[in-house]
Amino acid sequence: MTEGKLYVVGLGPGAYEDMTLRADRALEECDTIVGYSVYVDLIRDRYPGKEYATTPMTREADRCRMALEAARAGKTVALVCSGDSGIYGMAALVYALRGEDTLPEITVIPGLTAACSGGALLGAPLTHDFCVISLSDRLTPWETIEARLTAAAAADFSVVLYNPASRGRPEHLRRACEILLRTLPRERLCGIARSIGRPGESREFCTLGELGTREADMFCTVFIGNSATRLVGGNMLTPRGYRED
Amino acid sequence: MTEGKLYVVGLGPGAYEDMTLRADRALEECDTIVGYSVYVDLIRDRYPGKEYATTPMTREADRCRMALEAARAGKTVALVCSGDSGIYGMAALVYALRGEDTLPEITVIPGLTAACSGGALLGAPLTHDFCVISLSDRLTPWETIEARLTAAAAADFSVVLYNPASRGRPEHLRRACEILLRTLPRERLCGIARSIGRPGESREFCTLGELGTREADMFCTVFIGNSATRLVGGNMLTPRGYRED
Questions:
Q1: Does B141 contact A242 at a Cβ distance shorter than 8 Å?
Q2: Candidate from B95, B125, B156 with C-beta closest to A124
Q3: Which parts of chain A sit beneath pLDDT 50?
Q4: Cβ within 8 Å, pair B20-A22
Q5: Is the pTM of this model over 0.95?
Q6: Contact criterion met (CB below 8 Å) for A205 and A233
């Protein structure tokens, strides 16, 4: 039997053109594509003749097990993640489920995370040090999230919020803003990147004082500037440092 | 005269396959490629028949002005950055130098930043919240860098260090470790990704207590795990959250 292998593929934000050449080749090469149904639907037409296996949103461990099983059965498998395969992606879970075995062979193929793709949509908000924080408390106590928001604000990081709100948790963004406003001024510049690389892609700028009242869902990424971030020519820019040459 | 335009292109870590399809197309389409000579040399053979304009390492503003001038003269220009074009890249400087003008048209094409590509090389160290901090004090006071390291450690972020050392500043990584060790235990897991996607690519794992004695240069990216980060099957993994399902 041929030895199977498993690619953990970051698809990037959504548009085909934002995938890497390596990701595209892995999807061409593989027999089986495993993923969350919404992301698999984004690529299904482009890679015909594949076996597809999908699961609903929160079944990450099931998806990883399905992918490992198919690879053990000799298939070349692509387990797809939106954005990067590592950053909040499934690569760690796949490795953890394989444990100390060396087979099946696993290759992590990175993809554009929303810090990169959403930043490009808004301008260039991450030219200096930044924190990435998920507001999902499904696997993380809210106290940990709160401590990280507070630390990020105190040390003048730019901040990128992933999962700023989701079905059933619409108030997370507003709560995060209240925490940040204990340290940061209301006029701090913020940007929202929506549906990056997909139909309905849009961007919006506002102040931190306004941010908590804005519509946000799981297809949004929120950027909070540092003390030097400004709108210039309609784009959100953070300079490279405090002493520009 | 045709209107020129300017693409600010993130090349990713170095290998052609790690570029996005959009970046590859912009480089095919453009007349002129502008960049730091080392990065331009990585792609020169692949895009023949282009005009090339290069400058030495620290002349970012000169490169941006050259690119804007060529676009104003009607050329389609690709200004190339290693990694992402936004994250510590030149997109903000290009926008700032264009100011409130709307021409030439600027399109930022994101690329894989070392947090993504180095993370994939090491395993999956960034599955949870993280900070990205540059140790270069060329444009940032060291006190700011120190405050950010301290805040990141206190709030249990994973940390990615860009520019951990450079010619003339070999001691920055050791100083950063001393600061982190005021808060974090010596056995905290760390990883070093070297020359990602280029000849000599390698990875190394060590503890935070050992990290300050390790060789690091400007082609290294350093990852410091959070309290849950572990080596599993030879890979550096951070779980998605504190309560795994």
A1: yes
A2: B95
A3: 245
A4: no
A5: yes
A6: no
